[in-house]
Design goal:
mainly alpha, disordered C terminus, 187 residues
Length: 187
């Protein structure tokens, strides 16, 4: 008789799972009913959603501000570090910086770090506008956007006014202008 009064573990597990599923379905039905019929509940859900969206916007703004600061610091550090003067050193430096930038951008590293290498290569390149048109075609967009911000911070790179536009154009506008190929550059 003791055999018939004991419960098998599989029956206990099945009963527990059944109760959990039934409870979840009941809660889902209650939530759906409450959402459909209770205006105050809908307003509370909407307020919560707006609150989460506001927090997300605030975080995005903080990250953007932090990235702008990182870009400024990187550009200032590169300027303070200096750049080679003679042509052989410039050529070696250029090749090293471009290869490092390509490697970092392919690895998915920090966009600011990758863009800094491309920026340093741009600083020693004799025709920056030609190199920018090459970057437009080869560098991933997030890295290119950071590079455009770096170029905008550096007045010594002569890229403003390309394509016959206004000389006060933004770096983003300057970045896309070389593709028009005012100088007949082919890649």
């Amino acid at each position: 008789m003791s055999d018939s009064s004991t419960l098998r573990p599989s029956a206990v597990v099945a009963a527990t799972v059944g109760v959990a599923v039934a409870g979840f379905l009941a809660y889902a039905a209650y939530f759906d009913h409450k959402r459909r019929t209770d205006a105050e509940f809908r307003r509370a859900l909407k307020r919560e959603s707006q609150k989460e969206a506001k927090i997300a916007r605030s975080k995005a703004e903080q990250q953007s501000t932090a990235q702008r600061e990182a870009i400024k610091e990187a550009v200032n550090a590169a300027k303070a570090e200096g750049f080679p003067e003679n042509s052989e050193e410039k050529e070696a430096y250029f090749m090293e910086q471009v290869s490092q930038g390509e490697m970092l951008s392919q690895q998915g590293a920090d966009d600011v770090d990758a863009a800094l290498y491309f920026y340093k290569a741009l600083k020693v390149y004799p025709q920056p506008s030609d190199l920018i048109s090459i970057y437009d075609k080869t560098v991933p967009k997030p890295v290119l956007d950071v590079l455009a911000d770096m170029i905008a911070l550096d007045d010594s790179i002569p890229v403003r006014g390309l394509g016959g536009g206004s000389a006060g154009g933004s770096a983003g506008g300057s970045r896309s202008s070389p593709g028009v190929s005012q100088h007949g550059v082919d890649d």
